[in-house]
Fold this sequence. Notes:
By secondary structure, this protein is mainly α. It is about 75% helix and about 0% strand.
Amino acid sequence: MSAILGNPMFTTTTLPLLLGIVLALLARFALPPSSPALTVFWAVLLLFFYWDTLGPPVVPPVAASQKLIYLAFAGIVISLLPERVLGGRMGSLGAIVFAAAFLWLGWRRIAAGTLDLQMIAALAVGLLTLVGAPILTARQASQSPSMEEPFLTPAAVLALSLSGAIVSVLGASIVTGQLLGSVAALIGGWCLVHYVAVLRGGVAASWSKGLEFLLLYAAATVLIQVALLAPKANPAALILSSLPPIAAVLVRGPLQNQLPGARPLRPLVAGILIAVPAMLAIVTAIVWAPHGAALGFS
Length: 298
């Protein structure tokens, strides 16, 4: 049993998938989806995977990977603010904290003034997440939400995390890949339960604004760190990995007419449209992976 629990594949995929299923069942049968208690459960699990993957917080943090858990703490504090406080401020607040995270993670590279291909990719990733994530979380809930609406933000975080994990591992940055993989599996468990509920004629639970911000912020800051400091990660794949939140905004707007009328198919097709940039990112990273980087050994 100890061998299973100590296996990185178990803690990166199986365990978070099971815990995501548990969170989804809690939201369906025990807690309101907008309950702060549910956000606290998500936050505790998120910190567990940060701690398990990156180690305990270092005081003061020096390396960028040591800063990630502090950024997660900041995201948790913001996510637990009352909805009335977040309200109309979510867009501007999100843009500020994403910009602050980028500057804190990359200030040494920025101060060096080097504008190479990696830095251009990192700036693009930072800008795209700064734009996409706040717009997605700041959107107003519909009076009569469509069947796919509760899945839009989870699908965006899942696609960003999964593609980011693969791009990171192929770019020889295994630790951040494991962390993003855990986030993807956690959200995958949530989506699985709620999609089964839709197939059975039910309605999926929606994330609160705070929870949407927390998970988008956690996944995006790790992707930014990879873009800034993993020189073997493919720049084009990194940029594509940052696009799912923008794709989710488009699916809620101009692309909504492309969704089928069949109730069970709408969340599935919406998820596929949101995942298109992530799929392209994965293909790009695989095709142009540096020699040996596929296993993270070079």
